[in-house]
Write a structure and sequence with these properties.
The structure holds two protein chains of two kinds. Chain A is mainly alpha-helical. Chain A has eight helices and no strands. Chain A has a single domain, classed as Cytochrome c oxidase, subunit III, four-helix bundle (Four Helix Bundle (Hemerythrin (Met), subunit A), Up-down Bundle). Chain A starts with 13 loop residues before the first helix and ends with a helix. The model of chain A has no long low-confidence stretch (mean pLDDT about 95). By secondary structure, chain B is mainly alpha-helical. Chain B has one domain: Cytochrome C Oxidase, Chain A (Up-down Bundle). Chain B is globular, with a radius of gyration of 23 Å. Chains A and B meet through helix 1, helix 2, helix 3 and helix 7 of A and helix 1, helix 4, helix 5, helix 6 and helix 7 of B.
């Protein structure tokens, strides 16, 4: 078997199964969300759960295929580069997804809210909500009946600072794991990778307790105006990405445990590491622009 | 030695496609997936076209005759969404699937299974989107640009399904674009350096970059809509400190690169066809590449020219006006190069060339009206009138759609092994050409005279031109059936085409037999 030829897989059932599962998830989610107001949407929930379950099974099967092909030696160096390009551009698309929310944050902070407060030559907003004063964080909204504002915001120098330290540390521990893998030191790889996963889980638990504090003590909710909206959407999507990254790390950890990867070939590990570092960088942006300033 | 078709579980060697429907459902072959994309796109083209004909039928005369205003709004919305996301974009992806591996000398796309997934998401996404028309409260009725608060506070309940359909289309586009980029950057045959790439490949490389950069932004904006509608956020509601104009900024940050996503591959196709039928090398290859890259770069800093009348600060108006006008420079380079390629060439006028020539002339008209719209003070008059409708239909129909048709005629003999019927092709071209111009040229006049877009009724003075436009639309619409018949006839038979198909065309795709075998370039060719 020549290593020179590019591996073109035979027919596969996974893609169309995944399309059906994705459709079930999307249709179910839409049905569920539309039913939230009138306590309906039971069908939506079942569709969503069924779709999610199918998707998980499909991904396990699909990635399982890829892993066995990879371990079977079917992938040459060119294939490896395809995966690298694929993962790089996927992460770029994720960056642009966050860019949309960061863009929204910068726009409302520097333009929309000051304009609402009467700054600039437009100033018509003063006709709608006279007396509204622009401030950031926006604790008092123009219409307090519809969007009740909040009593305060999360103190960046407590949990968020700790979380920053945790995530930055986790990037280091992951790099230690990578070096250990390159030196074929499996026990150390397992140890450092396990530490990284632990740090990820601790980060998520802290985020969760921060959300509880925001909702119960500060009255900072999705509904409390544009500050709450940008705060929860940015940190929430980041949290989802950390969750996904942690799941990926767990899978990689299990694969290391069962003897996968070699010191030279371990792109699955590297791709997950890239993703983890990306999530880390996004957090730094969040810490600076959402919490501190 | 055939290592290509080896499979982990079963070691038997396959030479051709699988039998029956499973071929299409489970395929990983770039040619099959290209075919699926192209047929899907044509189906959506007819669906969106029927909606356009409903709009034009209602506008045949002033007054309300056939459909209710709310349904009219649903038709304008769905027509736009289906044509943009369902017809034009998948058609280009289909052409990319078929041609990129052949053009760069690759055995297939870089990630063939993901390629199949990219396609099969689309039928489900569009089924979901079109099904909204039959839901309580009707389908999306807020225009294809779905501006908040029309699409949030005042939207029908089906908007939730629309949002998830857009998410699915976005996933499909991003995966497709990643595949295209990986294929071009990693799968080129030895010796195929970047500056030897055919222009269709270059334009697609840049298009794929645009797709990966902006489709996530679209996903972001529809997510904000979803949160505003159902979970109490106030992104687009000033009462909570947000801003409806924020929606327009984010949407058009996606939307403006999106219009180049729909035209850059068209530039590539035309740059392949004109040299073949002028029997000259493309004039200014390198400048074409740099012009495409410049257009892509500029597309990120011009978005607010769609929003001149929303009350932007003066500096914003001025910046976006001049940045927009800059785009005319690289576009002008392209038009100049096409004309210079034809200058003193031995020209013949087969159907692909006719469509390409029409593209150059009519796209340029669309470009000029775009330049008019870019002038901020003048745009206050043109904004939201039929002049805008005329402008973007000139760049999209005789622009993008004609280029797709040209590409299909150009490569159809390569795909099927048969020449198409040139007489039928010419009939299709002339009917389309006349139909398109009858439809959209009068819209310039009624737009300048002040007829607003997206309104089912109009003042009496616009009646004559509207009637002409409606007649043109029906001519254009029904002449696409000629195309359908022609393609089916070509698939079933016709004069056998040799490998080269045309008179000494350039490119690796002409070195493989016609029809192109199921697997090509298992051993990469050597490019000198």
């Amino acid at each position: 078997m020549s290593q020179s030829a590019y591996y073109v897989p035979a027919q596969s059932r996974w893609p169309i199964y995944a399309s059906v599962a994705l459709f079930l998830m999307a249709y179910g989610a839409a049905h569920l969300i539309n039913g939230l107001a009138d306590q309906g949407g039971g069908l939506g929930l079942s569709l969503l759960l069924a779709g999610t379950f199918c998707m998980a099974m499909i991904l396990i099967g699909w990635f399982g295929n890829v892993i066995s092909e990879s371990r079977g030696g079917l992938y040459n160096a060119q294939m490896d580069r395809s995966f690298r390009w694929g993962m790089s551009w996927f992460i770029f698309s994720e960056i642009m997804f966050f860019a949309a929310f960061f863009g929204a944050l910068f726009y409302v902070r520097t333009l929309a809210v000051p304009w609402l407060g009467g700054e600039g030559e437009k100033g018509v907003s003063q006709l709608l909500w006279p007396g509204f004063e622009a401030q950031w964080p926006l604790l008092t909204t123009p219409d307090m009946k519809q969007f009740p504002g909040s009593d305060g915001v999360i103190n960046p120098w407590h949990l968020p600072l700790l979380n920053t330290a945790i995530l930055v540390t986790s990037s280091f521990t992951l790099t230690f794991a990578h070096h250990a893998l390159k030196l074929d030191n499996r026990p150390r790889t397992i140890l450092w990778l396990g530490t990284t996963i632990l740090l990820g889980v601790v980060f998520l638990l802290f985020q969760l307790s921060e959300y509880v504090e925001a909702y119960q003590e500060l009255g900072l909710t999705l509904n409390s105006g544009i500050y709450g909206a940008t705060f929860f959407m940015l940190t929430g999507f980041h949290g989802l990405h950390v969750t996904l990254g942690t799941l990926m790390l767990i899978i990689i950890w299990l694969r290391v445990l069962s003897g996968h990867f070699s010191p030279k070939h371990h792109f699955g590990f590297e791709a997950t590491a890239w993703y983890w570092h990306f999530v880390d960088v996004v957090w730094i942006g969040l810490f600076i622009f959402v919490y501190v300033f | 030695m055939n290592t290509l078709t080896r499979n982990v579980e079963c070691e038997h060697t396959e030479h051709g496609p699988a039998r029956g429907l499973s071929r299409w459902f489970f395929t990983t072959n770039h040619k099959d997936i290209g075919t699926l994309y192209l047929w899907f796109s044509f189906l959506m083209f007819l669906t969106g076209g029927c909606m356009a004909l409903m709009i034009r039928a209602e506008l045949f005369q002033p007054g309300l005759q056939l459909i209710q205003p709310d349904f009219f709004n649903q038709m304008t919305t769905m027509h736009g969404l289906i044509m943009v996301f369902g017809a034009v974009m998948p058609a280009f992806v289909g052409l990319a699937n078929w041609m990129l591996p052949l053009m760069v000398g690759a055995p297939d796309m870089a990630l063939p299974r993901m390629n199949n997934w990219s396609f099969w998401i689309l039928p489900f996404a569009f089924a979901m989107m079109i099904s909204t028309l039959f839901m309580e409260g009707g389908g999306p009725n807020f225009g294809w640009t779905f501006y908040a608060p029309l699409s949030t506070t005042y939207a029908p309940p089906s908007v939730t399904f629309f949002i998830f359909a857009v998410h699915m289309m976005g996933i499909s586009s991003i995966m497709g674009a990643i595949n295209v980029i990986a294929t071009i950057l990693n799968m080129r045959a030895p010796g195929m350096t970047m500056m030897k790439l055919p222009l269709f490949v270059w334009t697609w490389l840049i298009t794929a970059f645009l797709l990966i950069a902006v489709m996530p932004v679209l996903a972001g904006v529809v997510t904000m809509m979803l949160m505003d509608i159902h979970f109490g956020t106030s992104f687009f509601n000033a009462a909570g400190g947000g801003d409806p104009v924020l929606f327009q900024h984010i949407f058009w940050f996606f939307g403006h690169p999106e219009v180049y996503i729909m035209i850059l591959p068209a530039f590539g196709i035309v740059s392949e066809i004109i040299p073949t039928f002028a029997r000259k090398r493309l004039f200014g290859y390198a400048s074409m590449v740099y012009a495409t890259a410049s257009i892509a770069f500029l597309s990120f800093i011009v978005w607010a020219h769609h929003m001149f009348t929303v009350g932007l600060p003066l500096m914003g108006e001025i910046f976006f006006m001049f940045a927009t006008m800059l785009i005319a420079v690289p576009t002008g380079v392209k038009v100049f190069n096409w004309i210079a390629t034809m200058f003193r060439g031995s020209m013949t006028f087969e159907t692909p060339m006719l469509f390409s020539l029409a593209f150059v002339v009519l796209f340029t008209i669309g470009g000029f009206s775009g330049l008019m719209l870019a002038i901020a003070p003048a745009d206050f008059q043109y904004h939201d009138t039929y002049f805008v409708v005329a402008h973007f239909h000139y760049v999209l129909v005789p622009g993008a759609v004609f280029a797709i048709m040209a590409g299909v005629y150009y490569w159809l003999p390569k795909w099927t092994g048969n020449y198409y019927n040139e007489t039928l092709g010419k009939w299709h071209f002339w009917c389309s050409f006349i139909g398109v111009n009858l439809t959209f040229f009068p819209m310039h006049f009624i737009g300048l005279a002040g007829m607003p877009r997206r309104i089912p009724d109009y003042a009496l003075q616009f009646a004559d031109f509207n009637m002409v436009a409606s007649i043109g639309a029906f001519i254009f619409g029904f002449s696409q059936l000629i195309f359908l018949v022609l393609v089916i006839k070509t698939i079933r038979g016709g004069d056998r085409a040799p490998a080269q198909v045309w008179d000494q065309p350039q490119g690796l795709e002409w070195t493989v037999p016609s029809p192109a075998p199921y697997h090509t370039f298992a051993e990469p060719p050597e490019v000198k």
